[in-house]
Amino acid sequence: MKLLTHNMLTSSIIKGVKKGFPLGIAATDIKVSEVDFNPDFIKKMIPKLEWSAICEAAESIGHLDGLPKELAPDYETDEDFLKKAHHVIMEVEIKEGDLICPETGRKFPIKNGIPNMLLKEDEV
Amino acid sequence: MSLPTPCLRHLTTSNYEHIYEPAEDSFLFLDALEKEAEFLKELRPDMCLEVGSGSGVVSTFIAQLLGNNTYYLCTDINPLAADTTQQTGQQNHVSLNAVVTDLTASLTRLTTQVDVLLFNPPYVVTPSEEVGSRGIEASYAGGKDGREVTDRFFPCVPRLLSPSGVFYLIAIKENKQDEIETLMRSYGLTMEVVITRRSGPEHLSVLKFTRRKL
């Protein structure tokens, strides 16, 4: 699971949970693999992300890797920044671990790099 | 122009005991996307989401078509299917991002962010009791009129689609396309039929929905 995917996930389907975002991460296996850098893609993704959640997630798994926590107004032209953003949202993958609902503590397992967000019927 | 069908050699009959084996409906979906290739490229989608991705053949195909300017998310309620989706992507050198969830339940942050939405749903008319499985039955069992799962999903479509977004759906005649068209029109979505094919007893169509006024 890439941090870009993590930024799209919530636990708001749990009964009584309001926002369910961002989900906490307890990672037991993290893999960093090289992905072709596509600056245009990164530029158009950033406005769709909740940046603070990206940084919080990256920091919590020890992979902030120099990424600035504030988006600079001219980030689109800052190649160094775009490369760092690319690395954090596309190259760092959580292979095994848990996602954690911020409101209930409910854990969702990540196996083989895939988060399992299914709930039991009585939780919905 | 004919794009190659994604390679599925890594899958064997033992996989297909647990996940849906690509069949005529899947291949009709690929043909529809190929027919729509120019439209899809001009759309320049940022986010593509396939619901019920199964073997991953459809998302792999569209990822090969559209390239790495798009992020590909795939959901399946069957964990083995989600695994297979991701493997099929890897085998074909495209990056698919699978999530195990019911339809798009945990993806509420994608509101108005999805540019291409794909769903080859469980459309087969079956007894209602067969609906609700998390195994292979989930890939085909559609309950009454083959609509019990899609009817649950349709209200999500206008929320997910971006202003220029497009939703492609497979349906059979028994699913009552006229009713689907009327329902989707009430959400401000216009229906077109991309392609139709008869395959044995199934009269299959790929339907396309956009906010475009005809």
Automatic annotation (TrEMBL), chain A:
Subcellular location per the Swiss-Prot or TrEMBL entry: Cytoplasm, Perinuclear region; Nucleus, Nucleoplasm
Gene Ontology cellular component terms for the protein in this record: nucleoplasm; perinuclear region of cytoplasm
Keywords, in A-Z order: Cytoplasm, Nucleus
Main location: cytoplasm
CDD domains: Trm112-like (cd21089)
InterPro entries found in the cross-reference section: Trm112, Trm112-like
SUPFAM superfamilies: Trm112p-like (SSF158997)
A Pfam match: Trm112p
GO terms, biological process: rRNA (guanine-N7)-methylation; tRNA methylation
GO MF terms, alphabetically ordered: protein heterodimerization activity
Segment forming the signal sequence: none
Protein family according to the UniProt entry: Belongs to the TRM112 family.
Official protein name in the record: Multifunctional methyltransferase subunit TRM112-like protein
Automatic annotation (TrEMBL), chain B:
Domain Methyltransferase small: 44-126
BP term (GO), one: methylation
Swiss-Prot/TrEMBL catalytic activity: L-lysyl-[histone] + S-adenosyl-L-methionine = N(6)-methyl-L-lysyl-[histone] + S-adenosyl-L-homocysteine + H(+); methylarsonous acid + S-adenosyl-L-methionine = dimethylarsinate + S-adenosyl-L-homocysteine + 2 H(+)
Key words of the record: Methyltransferase, Nucleus, S-adenosyl-L-methionine, Transferase
Main location, first listed in the record: nucleus
MF (Gene Ontology): nucleic acid binding; protein-glutamine N-methyltransferase activity
A single Gene Ontology CC term: nucleus
Subcellular localization: Nucleus
Task performed by this protein: Methyltransferase that can methylate proteins and, to a lower extent, arsenic. Catalytic subunit of a heterodimer with TRMT112, which monomethylates 'Lys-12' of histone H4 (H4K12me1), a modification present at the promoters of numerous genes encoding cell cycle regulators. Catalytic subunit of a heterodimer with TRMT112, which catalyzes N5-methylation of Glu residue of proteins with a Gly-Gln-Xaa-Xaa-Xaa-Arg motif. Methylates ETF1 on 'Gln-185'; ETF1 needs to be complexed to ERF3 in its GTP-bound form to be efficiently methylated.
Protein family (similarity comment): Belongs to the eukaryotic/archaeal PrmC-related family.
Assembly and oligomerization: Heterodimer; heterodimerization with TRMT112 is required for S-adenosyl-L-methionine-binding.
Protein name per the record: Methyltransferase HEMK2
Source organism of this protein record: Ridgeia piscesae
